């Protein structure tokens, strides 16, 4: 009888146990999940930033190409006008060529300033 009493009391103890709460994942698993989430967030932020910078640069390049085309046609028109006024097309194109030469010398002299401006522009677009 002793054995059966032990079994009965053990069964009574099992019935009295409270329902267990769901187990929390171990701290290391939580930390691993947190790190993976942060890495994924970093990737998404990098993708967002790089696509924003690329879109901005593309629009700037398109604007620059339009500006260059404008200047090209402006100077061709100026050359034709000067050629008409001076009586010979080659004289108008010669004067415009001298203007291009002067612009080239100015750009060469201001190269460090122009480079700094471009670098600052790119940095501002990246950290915007």
From TrEMBL:
The chain crosses the membrane at residues 53-82, 88-108. Keywords: Membrane, Transmembrane, Transmembrane helix. The keyword Transmembrane applies. InterPro entries: Phage_holin_3_6. Pfam families: Phage_holin_3_6. This is Phage holin family protein. The lineage of its organism: Bacteria, Pseudomonadati, Bacteroidota, Sphingobacteriia, Sphingobacteriales.
């Amino acid at each position: 009888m002793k054995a059966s009493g032990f079994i009965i009391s053990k069964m009574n103890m099992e019935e009295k146990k409270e329902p267990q709460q769901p187990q929390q994942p171990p701290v290391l698993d939580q930390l691993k999940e947190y790190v993976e989430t942060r890495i994924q967030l970093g990737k998404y932020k990098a993708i967002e930033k790089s696509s924003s910078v690329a879109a901005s640069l593309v629009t700037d390049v398109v604007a620059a190409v339009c500006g260059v085309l404008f200047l090209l046609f402006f100077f061709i028109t100026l050359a034709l006008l000067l050629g008409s006024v001076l009586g010979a097309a080659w004289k108008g194109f010669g004067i415009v060529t001298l203007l291009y030469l002067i612009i080239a010398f100015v750009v060469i002299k201001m190269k460090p300033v122009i480079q700094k401006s471009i670098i600052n522009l790119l940095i501002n677009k990246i950290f915007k």
